[in-house]
Write a structure and sequence with these properties.
Largest sheet: 6 strands, antiparallel
Radius of gyration: 23 Å
Number of helices: 12
Helix content: 40-55%
Structural class: alpha/beta
Order of helices and strands: EEEHEEEEHEHHHHEHHHEEHHEHEEE
Distance between the termini: 24 Å
């Protein structure tokens, strides 16, 4: 899979850009704050419909845009791609809402037609490496859950729909729990069961899909990540495991349960029932996939708590390479590989290993650096070189 064309309009610092790309990819060199990362951010957004750099999409707009047309500020990202399933086009349009200053209108178009975000995710697949990814290892569980969700959503539309529905139901159930908490209702009062029944059923049916798919993908990632870590470090010892907030069987955790979704539903329903009293006292749902974690260890020690910065960095590189392996296997072609100023974070030996492994994947590579010497290497010699200047300006040599 590769991106053929990237068009930006009023996206962050870019007033307009129309960039044609070859199947091999592109090297982007320029000073900090010149707009290199913005290009990779735009590609990642086409894959997931969400920015990997901010939770506030208002930051993506050029706030001087629209003035000459008398319309609210806006931004647009469009990409044309080719893959094993053929060619396609994805477009994201963002515009400030003049009636609600804090709000943003977002429109997604697939092949020129309006579409839901749920139906656009994963048509173009991409894996992003960025220096801040080390936070996946060292940061809170929410970051690791988000990593899993973005990864699996590009592979499985059913997962994304179930996750979206689960989050909406969770919000409604928590609202009801807070109301019952204020009323000091006893957990076994028949009214509690009657009011929670529908939300519990919806939570379980959608949560079971999420749990099942996470178990399967983490099991696949664990095997590939261990292999990639061995390549990068010359050592073994990297372990990846799913840590669910409810008890699951070993076969579920290994991704080998014969009727996994049904088994996950039974386990989740039992855990939810057992937790009802605590849920009512706290006014929040205490068990479920929204409390899960991804555990990353080296030689049985938690990398986030006890690993060196170098070990954390190599663990993330191995995890991301494993992500590419899994996507390539399940989808029939590799995703676009986005390397955002990560080469300077690695020593020469590990940098060469990463690029050698990446080159063997056959993926389109878009790589950024502040210094030409970081990308002036044999493994990247086939990629055109673009210089990005403040403005931003982009010149391909």
């Amino acid at each position: 899979m590769f991106l053929r064309e990237l068009e930006l309009e009023e996206f962050r610092s870019y007033r307009h850009l129309d960039l044609r790309l070859g199947a091999a990819g592109l090297r982007l060199v320029g000073p900090n704050a010149s707009g290199k990362s913005t290009l990779l951010e735009a590609v990642a957004m086409l894959a997931t419909t969400r920015s990997p750099r901010t939770s506030s999409e208002r930051e993506l707009l050029n706030w001087t845009s629209g003035e000459e047309y008398g319309v609210p500020p806006f931004a647009r990202v469009r990409g044309r791609y080719s893959g094993a399933d053929g060619e396609g086009e994805i477009e994201l349009r963002l515009q400030a809402d003049p009636e609600r200053p804090a709000a943003l209108r977002k429109q997604v178009r697939v092949d020129g037609r309006p579409s839901r975000s749920l139906d656009a995710v994963g048509r173009l697949r991409a894996v992003l490496f960025a220096p801040e990814d080390v936070g996946i290892v060292s940061g809170p569980p929410s970051g690791r859950r988000r990593y899993l969700d973005l990864n699996i959503s590009q592979l499985d539309a059913r997962y994304l729909r179930a996750l979206s529905r689960f989050n909406r139901v969770l919000e409604q159930r928590n609202s009801l729990l807070k109301s019952l908490q204020r009323q000091r209702v006893h957990p076994r009062d028949p009214m509690v069961g009657e009011q929670l029944a529908f939300w519990d059923s919806e939570l379980v049916s959608n949560g079971a899909v999420v749990i099942d798919r996470r178990c399967q993908i983490v099991a696949s990632l664990a095997q590939r990540a261990a292999e990639r870590f061995g390549q990068l470090s010359g050592l073994g010892g990297l372990e990846l495991s799913y840590a669910p907030a409810i008890p699951l069987s070993e076969r579920m955790l290994a991704g080998r349960a014969p009727d996994a979704t049904a088994e996950a539903a039974r386990d989740f329903a039992a855990a939810l029932d057992a937790s009802r009293g605590d849920d009512l006292r706290r006014g929040v749902t205490l068990v479920g996939p929204h409390r899960d974690d991804l555990v990353i260890r080296i030689d049985e020690a938690d990398v986030g708590a006890f690993g060196s910065r170098g070990q954390q960095r190599l663990a993330i590189v191995a995890l991301k390479l494993a992500e590419i392996d899994v996507m390539s296997t399940l989808c029939g072609d590799p995703p676009v590989l986005l390397l955002d100023d990560v080469l300077s974070e690695l020593d020469p030996a590990h940098r060469s290993l990463l690029l050698s492994v990446a080159g063997g994947l056959g993926a389109q590579v878009l790589v950024t650096a502040t210094e030409s010497r970081d990308v002036d290497v044999t493994e990247l010699a086939a990629l055109p070189l673009a210089h990005v200047g403040i403005g931003p300006t982009l010149t391909i040599s």
